[in-house]
Design a protein that fits this description.
By secondary structure, this protein is of the alpha+beta class. The protein has eleven helices and six strands. The protein is elongated and about 65 Å long. The mean pLDDT is 91.
Length: 294
């Protein structure tokens, strides 16, 4: 075990000793790379800890409990992706990076009774390590089928909605860029449009390589599972903070999305809004006519 791994294990041991004395905390578990065997942790990995508590608020609303675990250098809270709470992120002494996710234990109890939510099931399927378990959750979880939930491809309506969303925002980006709102245009080009592109990459991969292909989440290990042609195109689709380069990156992003979406539609036997794409593309190019060309 390397020194970084040992430092995290020491921190975990201190957390466990403290959590065992907190009656409010009913369970705590490690998820992510430090709990899985597929793409396991390396020296750069952080530590993700879910705290299941009767009342989770004290653990995200305040930081006075952190010294029981280590010396915090930095700490802040961040909204959870589902908007139903916060996580407390901490950089401890030695550069140890920990994400604590305090959650209501009652919600977890209910899921064990009625069925895990798809994102929770996928997360736990990849690996979980109980640190504290005052209610026997580990045994109950082991009794639930470990099989990954079957992948559900997008419906045609979901597919078309994303495609329309993408092409609409190419025009929106071009207009912002033409107006001189470089910050806003770049954020959309290299932020929002890229998130839509990532989703299409996931759909394209599963549609072409099979539904059992693991596309992970949020682009993790994308270089391993995405189409090699798309991976080769990625360096050209991001821009410098420079108007001509954002124009160039926008057009490159449009080109990549175009063939990914077309091939996905063909594989899924879905309609494709070619006329809408054509009008959006023509509009983007017309907006560039009087702008600085890439």
């Amino acid at each position: 075990m390397n020194t970084v791994a040992m430092a995290y294990e020491d921190l975990i041991a201190r957390f466990v000793r403290w959590a065992q004395t907190e009656d409010n905390i009913r369970a705590a578990l490690v998820i992510g790379s430090r709990a899985r065997t597929d793409h396991p942790a390396d020296e750069w990995s952080d530590l993700d800890v879910i705290i299941l508590a009767n009342d989770p608020e004290p653990y995200w609303a305040a930081a006075d409990w952190l010294p029981h675990i280590g010396v915090p250098w930095l700490t802040f809270i961040e909204p959870l992706h589902d908007g139903r709470g916060f996580e407390r992120r901490v950089l401890f002494e030695g550069g140890l990076d920990v994400d604590f996710v305090p959650s209501p234990v009652e919600v977890f109890r209910r899921m064990l009774d009625t069925g895990l939510l798809p994102d929770v099931a996928d997360l736990l399927h990849r690996g979980v390590r109980f640190l504290v378990d005052k209610e026997g959750f580990a045994a109950r979880l082991a009794g639930i089928s470990a099989a990954r939930l079957s992948y559900q491809p997008p419906t045609e309506a979901e597919f078309l909605n994303l495609v329309h969303d993408f092409w609409y925002h190419t025009v929106w980006t071009a207009k912002k860029l033409r107006r001189g709102e470089l910050w806003t245009a770049k954020l959309c080009c290299d932020g929002y449009l890229k998130q839509l592109l990532r989703r299409m990459l996931e759909w394209h991969t599963r549609a072409r390589r099979g539904e059992s292909t693991d596309t992970w989440m949020n682009g993790r290990f994308l270089e391993e599972w995405a189409d090699a042609r798309a991976v080769a195109a990625l360096p050209a689709i991001f821009a410098h903070y420079d108007a001509p380069d954002v124009w160039r990156a926008l057009l490159a992003t449009m080109d990549l999305f175009h063939w990914l979406a077309l091939e996905t539609a063909e594989a899924l036997a879905y309609m494709y809004p070619s006329i809408g794409e054509m009008h959006a593309t023509q509009t983007v190019r017309s907006v560039t006519e009087h702008a600085v060309q890439p």
